[in-house]
Structures are given as C-alpha cells and as structure tokens.
C-alpha cells in the first residue's frame, strides 16, 4: 500500500538475507546469552548437539567466556560477541576469567 | 667489575632507591615506626606529612587508561589531574606504588599513555598488575614494561626506609566460581622472602585485588589471601594495600592494617548497593570527589603507618 521508505526497504533486505538464520532460530540451533551486570543471562541453557550460542557483553567492563579445555573467548569489550557451536553432548561449565564469580552452564544433549 | 650491574640484589636495591620517587593519583602512605597510615587523599596528606617527617610514599590505583564510558569519558584526563595534584604536594614523596589496572584493555597505546602521564610525577613507580593489564593476546605488554627483575607472574620485594615491601600478583589463573588467586608458587616464594626478616621490620604487602575478603559475592577477595597473611603474622607491623574496588575501605586486625585506595578513573558502588560492581555513573560535579590517591607516612618507633586518602576534589 505505502511505498517502502529507505529504512523499511533496508529492513526487508536484511530480513531476506537473514532468513536462513531466522529459520534456524526457530529450530533452536542458534541461541543467545547476554552479559548484563556481571551476570550470564540466562545462567543455564539446555540445548541440542549442533546448537550455536552467541554471547554478547552489554556491560561497560570487559568480560571473557571460558570453559576449561573447551572454549575460550578473547576479551569482549562492550557489545563484543563470542560464538561457539556445541558438537558434543555434555555439561559445559564456564566462567569469566576476569571476574571468576561470574559462572554459567550449557547442558548439551 | 660487574657486581654492580649484574648482582641481582645490587640492582634491585638501587632500583628501589630510584623507586623512591613515584607519583600518581593515589593514597599517600606514611610509615611511622612500622605501620603505614593512609593520610587520606592528598590535601590532608599534605598536612600530615608536613607535621610528621619520616618516609612518605604514594599509592595510586585503577587508572584504567583507555576507559571512555559514561562513568568517566576521559580516564586519562583524571589520571593527569591526579599527577598534577601529586606534583603540587609540598613534600615530595619518596616513591609511588600503582596497585594495578593501569590500563583498561591492555593495549600498547594505553600503556604508553599511562606511562607518559605517570612519568610526569618524576617519581619511581612500583607496579603490580590488575586483571585489566593482562588482556593482550600474548600477555606481554605489562611484562615487557614492568616485569623486569620480577619473579613468576610479576611478584617481587624491596626495602625502602626500613620497611620491607612485597608486590604480589593475584589476578592470574583465576578459577571459575572463585576469587583472586596467589597460587602455590607465589606463596612459597613469599614464605621464603620473609624468612629470616626481623619481626620488628615493618611489612607492606600490596596487590591489586584485596587480600582480605571484602565482598565475595562480587569477587572482592583473594581465595588464598589468608595463607599470605599467616606468613606475616609474627611481624609487629603489617600493612596491606590494595585497589580493584575503586573506593576507600579500611580495617585493622591486630597488627595488620588493610586499606584499599580510590581509583583515578571511575568509582564503583559500595558492596551490595547496586546490581553489579560495574562503573558507577555519578553526577559530573561529584565524580572527582570519588577519585583520588593515597599517601602513606612512616615514622620510626610508631606502630602504624599513617594513611591519608585524598580525593581529586573536595
């Protein structure tokens, strides 16, 4: 009905490009963890093998995401992201190596 | 011929003497007869040192050079203000200690900027690292600059003005769910370092994260800090100087005085008063009253070092 303004057009294009990802999200193969106020949110996630998780640091302080022997992010400054795909079942405890009181858990089945 | 240059003791002793000139925004510590007292932040420190000769050194901490978030968009600027304040002190301190988080993200440029400003104090500076100083990929920038002549991850000791100073590293190899960590190797070194020292020698331990448990819910403490404190139990005067929590906190337990210094970059909330220990945004007019330095004065035959914490303003 209305002509698309430039922004909406951009969104439409982005949506088209992101479509495969969006579909995947519906299958729960991509999930997100946010770091807010020195807390991993959600602190525990149950996922299926093959799922990819993206952590985003939303604090004004850098953090890391480390699971001993399994994965280790670089230092994540504000809004930086870290992504890891879980290819094996198991319990993955992880923490921030700068603020080790920050802990989280990914249960992969 | 090379005894002078290569004898490790000779070098470090000389370094120590050279180090007696350190400045920054910090706490001015006065060692009087063995116990450091924080003279508060700088203005009151001036008063105290003027009245009380003896050795005075400064503590600055948590300069977080590179930090530019709302809590303080110009952390380098407030570091410079702190150094200016130190330079204006009527009595020049013997040296300075920096209790870590020199930089925010361990970038080479941040270390360079920090050094450019801190060196304007013309004081020798003894550093210990904070967790923010070990973030570069190869963990080499801090060590290249400040690690020379240190042991392990960067710990060391020196003597100045009749006081034994020990710089400890408790920001490495932290364990999930835990607190700051000294580790077995460093503790063994510390025990050895203190062995044979006269119990009347005043001891100053300094490290980034508090060696005592301030607030474990926010990670403000050191897992095996109690072990280090056992080694200094027999000494008549022990002062523990830390940073990390960006606020002044003090506790006296027997012969041990615990003290944390303000940051020169941004304040953090009092334990449990906010959702997280992250940078606390305060009104612009209030910021400088929550940043500062400490000076410590030491006088022979007095038990406690006098510690004066001085804010940048107010």
TrEMBL record, chain A:
Q: Which UniProt keywords apply?
A: Signal
InterPro entries annotated for this entry? Amicyanin, Cupredoxin, EfeO_Cupredoxin, ET_Amicyanin
- Keyword Signal (UniProt): yes
Coiled-coil annotation: which residues? none
Signal peptide bounds: 1-26
Describe the location of the EfeO-type cupredoxin-like domain by residue ranges: 12-106
Q: What's the short name of a Pfam family annotated to this entry?
A: Cupredoxin_1
SUPFAM superfamilies in the cross-refs: Cupredoxins (SSF49503)
UniProt keyword ATP-binding present = no
Read off the CDD domains from this record.
Amicyanin
Protein name (database record): Amicyanin
UniProtKB/TrEMBL annotation, chain B:
Q: Upper lineage ranks? A: Bacteria, Pseudomonadati, Pseudomonadota, Alphaproteobacteria, Hyphomicrobiales
Q: Which GO terms describe its molecular function?
A: hydrolase activity
Identify the InterPro entries for this entry.
Answer: Calcineurin-like_PHP, Metallo-depent_PP-like, STPP_CPPED1
Gene3D superfamilies in UniProt: 3.60.21.10
Question: Pfam families of this UniProt entry?
Answer: Metallophos
Q: Report the source organism.
A: Bradyrhizobium rifense
Q: What is this protein called?
A: Metallophosphoesterase
Calcineurin-like phosphoesterase domain spans which residues?
55-247
Specify the domain of life of the species encoding this protein: Bacteria
């Amino acid at each position: 009905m209305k002509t698309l303004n430039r922004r909406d057009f951009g969104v439409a294009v982005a949506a088209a490009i992101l479509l495969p990802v969006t579909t995947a999200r519906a299958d729960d193969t991509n999930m997100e963890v946010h770091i807010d106020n020195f807390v991993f949110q959600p602190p525990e996630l149950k996922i299926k093998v093959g799922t990819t998780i993206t952590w985003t640091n939303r604090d004004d302080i850098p953090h890391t995401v480390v699971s001993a022997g399994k994965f280790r992010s670089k230092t994540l400054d504000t809004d930086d992201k870290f992504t890891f795909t879980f290819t094996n079942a198991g319990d993955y405890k992880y923490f921030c190596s700068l603020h080790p009181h920050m802990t989280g858990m990914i249960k992969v089945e | 011929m090379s005894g002078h240059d290569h004898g490790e003791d000779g070098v470090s002793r000389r370094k120590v003497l050279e180090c007696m000139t350190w400045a920054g925004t910090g706490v001015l510590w006065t060692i009087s007869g063995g116990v450091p007292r924080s003279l508060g932040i700088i203005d009151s420190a001036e008063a105290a040192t003027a009245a009380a000769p003896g050795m005075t050194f400064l503590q600055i901490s948590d300069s977080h050079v590179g930090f530019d978030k709302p809590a303080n968009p110009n952390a380098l600027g407030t570091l410079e203000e702190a150094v200016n304040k130190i330079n204006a002190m009527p009595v020049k301190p013997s040296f300075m200690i920096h209790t870590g988080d020199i930089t925010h993200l361990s970038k080479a440029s941040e270390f360079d900027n920090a050094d450019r400003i801190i060196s304007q104090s013309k004081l020798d500076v003894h550093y210990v690292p904070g967790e923010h100083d070990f973030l570069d990929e190869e963990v080499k920038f801090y060590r290249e600059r400040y690690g020379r002549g240190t042991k392990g991850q960067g710990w060391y000791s020196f003597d100045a003005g009749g006081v034994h100073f020990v710089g400890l590293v408790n920001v490495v190899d932290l364990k999930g769910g835990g607190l700051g960590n000294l580790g077995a190797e460093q503790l063994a070194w510390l025990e050895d370092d203190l062995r044979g020292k006269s119990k009347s020698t005043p001891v100053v331990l300094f490290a980034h994260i508090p060696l005592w448990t301030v607030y474990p819910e926010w990670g403000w403490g050191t897992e095996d800090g109690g072990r280090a404190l056992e080694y200094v139990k027999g000494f008549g005067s022990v002062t523990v100087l830390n940073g990390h929590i960006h606020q002044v906190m003090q506790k006296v337990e027997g012969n041990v005085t615990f003290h944390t210094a303000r940051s020169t970059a941004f304040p953090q909330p009092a334990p449990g008063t906010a959702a997280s220990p992250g940078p606390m945004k305060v009104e612009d007019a209030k910021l400088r009253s929550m940043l500062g330095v400490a000076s410590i004065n030491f006088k022979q035959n007095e038990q406690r070092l006098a510690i004066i914490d001085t804010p940048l303003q107010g």
